[in-house]
Design goal:
Rossmann fold, 3-stranded parallel beta sheet, about 100 residues, alpha/beta, 4 helices
Length: about 100
Amino acid sequence: MELGNVLRVYLTQRRSLRAICLLIDARRLPESDEKEIQKLCFEYDRRVVPVITKIDKLNRSQREQQVRAIAHAFGLEPDDLVISGKGMNIIPLWKRILAVLD
C-alpha cells in the first residue's frame, strides 16, 4: 500500500486527530512523500505543524538559507515553521501545537 493510501485511511479513521507534526530534517529539502503528507492533511482538514529538526547540525549562515528553502518548498513563510535542534528551547513548539489545537 503506498503512503497516500495509508495516510488517507489514517486521516479518515482517526476522528480525534486534529493536527500532525511534520518533521523535516534541516539538512535536506522536503521530498515528495513529505509534500504528499502536507497535501493530504489539507485535503482532510487536518492542521499541520511543520517542524524543522536537527537545525543544530548546520552552521549559522546555512540555517537561515535552509529554513527559507524548506518554507518555499512547502509554499509557506519561514515563520510558519517551527525550528528544533539539540539544546534549543522546546517551548515554541509546544506553543505552536497548543495554538493549532485551540
